[in-house]
Amino acid sequence: MVSPSWCGLLLGCVALAVGANSARADAIDGQWCSGTKHFEIDGPKIRTPSGNVIAGNYGRHGFTYVVPRNEEGAGTQIVMVLLNEETVRLTRGTSAPETWKRCKPVS
């Protein structure tokens, strides 16, 4: 028989794990894909589609950065807005917005 204290500890760990996934789902952090391109946001850091890791302006539901000089479109401001758990709208300067999806859906 399992003691009540072990049950409480187990339930607490499960709730913590579920809560961590839920919190991440409502944030722009994570890996985003469009065709064969992808980028990854981790707080104020982004790995750009060209593979550079740089700092940007992080908000829980948005992220902006300026394309580094060694990448196509250098100097262009990129603005990303989280539309829902699985979709980001990305705008490059004055270009039409693009839709990016999570590389691995959050459950």
Beta-strand percent range: 35-45%
Q: Work out the count of structural domains.
A: 1
Largest sheet, in brief, is: 9 strands, antiparallel
Instruction: Please give the number of β-strands.
Output: 9
Which assembly state applies to the chains in this document? single chain
Helix/strand structural class: alpha+beta
The number of helical elements comes to 1
**First-last Cα distance:** 33 Å
Low-confidence stretches: 4-23
Summed over residues and divided by their number, the pLDDT gives a mean of 83
Residues in helices, as a percent range: 10-25%
Which of globular, elongated, flat, extended, rod-shaped describes the shape? globular
Gyration radius, in Å: 18 Å
Main sheet strand line-up: 4-3-2-1-9-8-7-6-5
> N-to-C SSE series?
HEEEEEEEEE
How would you sum up this structure, described in words?
This protein has 107 residues and is an alpha+beta fold. The chain has one domain (4-102). 21% of the residues lie in helices and 41% in strands. The chain has one helix and nine strands. Strands 4-3-2-1-9-8-7-6-5 form a nine-stranded antiparallel beta sheet, with no helix packed on it. It is globular and about 35 Å long. The model is unreliable at 4-23 (pLDDT under 50).
Summarize the structure.
The protein is α+β, with helices and mostly antiparallel strands and 107 residues long. 21% of the residues lie in helices and 41% in strands. It is globular, with a radius of gyration of 18 Å.
Keywords:
107 residues, alpha+beta, 9-stranded antiparallel β-sheet
Give a topology summary.
Layout: H1 4-25, E1 30-34, E2 37-42, E3 45-47, E4 53-55, E5 57-59, E6 62-66, E7 77-84, E8 87-92, E9 98-102
